[in-house]
Amino acid sequence: EKERSEFDYKAFLTGKKYLTKPYLMAAFAGKKKKKKKPKRAKKQKGALPIGIQDEGPRTANGNPPTIYAPQHIHHTD
């Protein structure tokens, strides 16, 4: 038996006097390592083609091309 002035550090570190059995088993049980998840592949964005129509030649006196000129549609009965 120890004197009152002495401190039993081994008994304190084991914790058998101070903790119940379930807590002791959890403290000293081997810990399982988590499995690493495989990294996901990054989605690659492809080049998106943009449809562009050729404007064609300009009309007389430098006016806009004919595709931009208003078209008159005549409705007949």
How would you characterize the overall build of this protein?
The protein is an all-alpha fold and 77 residues long. It has one domain. It has 2 helices and no strands. The longest helix has 8 residues. The relative contact order is 0.07.
Topology:
Elements: H1 9-14, H2 21-28
Region (Disordered): 30-77
Biased composition (Basic residues): 30-45
Sketch the major β-sheet.
none
**Overall number of strands:** 0
**What portion of the residues fall into strands of 2 or more residues?**
under 5%
**Structural class computed from helices and strand pairing:** mainly alpha
Distance between the termini: 120 Å
Total number of helices? 2
Pattern of helices and strands: HH
* Oligomerization state: single chain
Query: Which consecutive residue ranges, at least 5 long each, have pLDDT under 50?
Result: none
What's the Cα radius of gyration?
A: 43 Å
Region (Disordered): 30-77
Biased composition (Basic residues): 30-45
In short:
With 77 residues, the chain is mainly alpha-helical. The chain has one domain (9-68). The chain contains two helices and no strands.
